[in-house]
Every structure is written in structure tokens, then in C-alpha cells.
Amino acid sequence: MNSIKSASTVGEALEQVMAALQGSEAYYGHGTDNAWDEAVQLVLWSAGLPADSDDSVLPLPLSAAQALSVAEVLRRRIEERVPLPYLTGEAWFAGLRWQCDPRAIIPRSPIAELLQAGYRPWYRGPSPSRILDLCCGGGCIGLATAWYLPDARVDLLDLDAEALALAAENAQALGLTDRVRLLQSDLFAAVPGERYDIIVSNPPYVDDADLSSMPAEYAHEPALALGSGADGLDLTRRILARAADYLQPHGLLVVEVGNSWEALEKAFPQLPFTWLEFEHGGHGVCVLSAQELRQNQSSLQE
Ligand SMILES: C[S@@+](CC[C@H](N)C(=O)[O-])C[C@H]1O[C@@H](n2cnc3c(N)ncnc32)[C@H](O)[C@@H]1O
To answer: Could you give the CA distance from residue 205 to residue 259 in angstroms, rounded to a whole number?
Structure first.
């Protein structure tokens, strides 16, 4: 680590951070998937440089304070296994910058790709005017949806008041406060009688087996955001049972269940899930139309 303090340029620091990360047990699952991308983010942030800087910054000198920042962030990343976005206070999702801290999980859902496409072609209704982000955390999915669909109003719901406070800060930073509502709610409880064109949800979905074997980085995220019962489907079962009541007849439900997708298929063999494929990776996101949900509603009751 001392060698980092002696790095005199951005390029040198990058090489040293990359080598230190590669020689460590750090796990990459919070916005990057490899040591190089993580080293780039860490060094650029410490040097106060834009996250999309190109090679021209490599020869730039690092001040003593910047070199110390690189060393300290790297130490906490490797020794305490804190995910990098919690150390820098920022994350990138759907092409936007997010304020990020342990009040909510770090944005990483593959739904980013879908919302940037306006939920097409899966959503087939008229231009969506009302959208619900259920289990919104720090707000990345619902707020990015509002950003890319400027005619839509978005409700964001979460049980956790701390997560909602972070979502409110993100809404403010993105200038979206006039088109979004943030409500503390146990699933749909706070929006009785409302009807949405699209309901999108990345609920907790980690099953007990995965929860007990997750890399140390995940222990820094709120427990309420991860586990969801023995098979990871406690919350998803409740969402499937009620979603049709909150959707327009032409509406669409989008739910992420990650690795629990096989358990979901097995639990509801009668449901015609469409599993989405993503250009930039990720899996375990399905869509169901309001019609499909309604046709199966009797078998979905909690
Ligand atoms: C996997 S995180 C997703 C956060 C955000 N949507 C994202 O993609 O980064 C799940 C969220 O569900 C919330 N949650 C857990 N149980 C809930 C419940 N019963 N009702 C509403 N939200 C709940 C947690 O507080 C957490 O913020």
C-alpha cells in the first residue's frame, strides 16, 4: 500500500491499484465486474477527474493528498471489503450519476437497459403516463424511468425510510421532483385504487443458500434489500398475487428475481413468464402482461 503513496502520476497509480486489487480477495459485483474497471473508477475519483476520462489523463501528476486518498480508499476496499460506490459516494446506472451510500443497495439492475428502451417492445400500450417502481431503494429504476420517459409520472415505494431519503436526494439531484412521488409502503399498501401502465420491481430475492455464501461486500448493503425467505420468493409471491389489481388492462409487470428464476418457474409452472435477454449482461428479469396475470389470478393468491 505504501507504494501507492509514492505513485506520482494517474497512470502509475492505476497500475498499482490494479495489481493490488488483483492480488486481493475483492469481489466485483457492484457496478463493475473486473479489477481494471474498478481501478479506473477508484483512481479517477481520488484524482478528482471525470469518470469518462480518456488516456490523455495518464501522465497527469497526482498531488500528495490525491495519492493518500487512493491509498486509503484502496485499503478500505481490500481490507474491509467495502464496495467501491460506498467509498466514493457515487454510482453509475442507465448512463446517469447516482448518489450512493449504505442507506440503499448499489444500483446494478439489468433493468437499466429495458427502461432506456421505454420498456418496449414488451410494453405494448399507449405512451405510458403512470409507472410504479415497487421496492425502489435509492430510486435508480424509478427515477431513471422518469428521466427517459419525460411524459410519465412515477411513484416510488419502499418499506425503508432511509432508502427513501436517499431516493429523495437523487430525485432532487436529477431535477425530477415534480414528476415523482416517494412513499413509504409495504408493497402496494400506500397506493390503494391506483392503476399503472407499468409496474417495475427489483424486490429482495436472494434465497437462504445464496445469502449465507455471499462475498463479504454484500454484508455492507441493507439486509432488508437482499433476503426474501428460503427460496428467495417471499416478496415476489406477494407481488404476483396483487399486481393485476394495480395495472391498467394493457399494463405490464416487470420483476427481477436474479438467481431465483428457476425457483420461480418451478413454483408457478402455469405462468407464461417471458425471460429477458440483455446486451450488457444480467439475467433473471421477467415480464408478464396484466392479462396474463389476471387469467392466472386464482392460482396466485397468497
Ligand atoms: C433489491 S433492493 C432494490 C432497490 C432498487 N430498486 C435497485 O434496483 O437498486 C430491494 C428493496 O426492497 C425494499 N423492500 C423490502 N421489503 C419491502 C416491502 N415489504 N415493501 C416495500 N419495499 C420493500 C428494500 O428496502 C430495498 O430497498
So the answer is: 8
CATH class of 102-300: alpha beta
E strands within the chain?
A: 90-93, 96-99, 130-134, 153-158, 180-184, 196-201, 247-256, 274-275, 285-289
Name the pTM for this structure: 0.95
* Cβ of 137 below 6 Å from ligand 1: yes
pLDDT at 43 (0 to 100): 97
Query: Could you tell me the three cell numbers for 182?
Result: 416517494
Contact of 283 with 114, CB cutoff 8 Å: no
Q: Is 163 in the pocket of ligand 1 (CB under 6 A)?
A: yes
Distance 48 CA to ligand 1 centre (A): 32
Centre of ligand 1 to C-alpha 156, Å, is 10
List the domain boundaries for the chain.
2-88, 102-300
- pLDDT of 74: 97
